[in-house]
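hey can u check if this looks right to u? its 386 residues, i copy pasted from the old doc so theres a chance i mangled smth
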Amino acid sequence: MIAYFDCFSGISGDMTLGAFLHLGVPADALARALAGLPLEGFEIVEEKISDNGIGAVRAIVKTAPTRHARHLSDIEALIGRADISLNIKEKALAIFRRLGRAEAKVHGTDIEKVHFHEVGALDAIVDVVGTAFCLDYLGVERIFCSGLPLGRGFVRCAHGVLPLPAPATVELLTGCPTYGANIEAELVTPTGAAIVSALAEAFGPPPQMIISAVGYGAGSCRLPDRPNLLRILLGKACAPLLKDRVIVIETLVDDMNPEHYGLLAERLFGQGALDVALIPAQGKKGRPATLARVICPPGLKDSVCACLLENSTATGLTWQEADREKLARSQVLVETEFGPVAAKLITDPSGRQRIAPEYEACARIARQHNLPVDLVYSKVLAGRVL
């Protein structure tokens, strides 16, 4: 399972928890997991809201007021003693350690000497450990993230008044794609930046995926020009499409003997053409014509063009370079009652695989055994891949 964080309005810890609750993580299961922390005095409230007509969940972490600051070692010990799975602990620790390195660099000190104030507070610990639990609960193995919008202005915190984005946030997002949003608000918090920078394997547009669920987590304030929501897409990865560049060559022929087209196609394939299409068309003055469309690798353009002009009545042609995408495929042998038969094993974007028998191999068997070729095809489709 993969998750894509669509941060069109930024990200925070509570927005992340809200999106996961909206995706279907039961609030009581999250509460039971967080009860494994050696901490008291907190509660998660799940509030269903609508922002610009979009239904979402706001996760509110209620805690008693405190000015308690923690070192990284305090948080590591706390998570280490928690009654939660090792996988959840590792994710939560990875987030806090990345945050510790960023804070240490901002303040010019050693990571072990960093005092976590806001991000060491109880609600931040709940956000981080809760996020790690939700990822584990949903079976998320890979995380991707969009570019991140950065607001402007100032924020008051334990260190005083700081510019937005906060210095720790900027440090955490070093190497991540960001863009300016003309909004006086903290769109990306240090906790949110730590979550995605520690766990996301790539930033950019959504990966190839089959979406199975969408969750929206609400922020704590209203934004003037957009819904203040984090969107998380959950789904399965698609088999990647193979990509390459090809040359598409075309010419319109209206004065050629139709009997000669077969040899033309044969010779074009002999020159390395990937595909040859002969399409009925209407030429100038209403004449019946044939559009010859040939696809070939870029390195064979000149020889294929020469072959087309030499073996047809065409006096000119057009060509263009184009992107090509194709399904992943491999050559295989299929066990049948006729022996091994050549075929292609093709994988579609959903990961499903299918067999495509090779025509020439099936036609040869059909001739040898005096059978219809479609019967041979059916035997190959029912066979076992060797």
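The radius of gyration is 30 Å.
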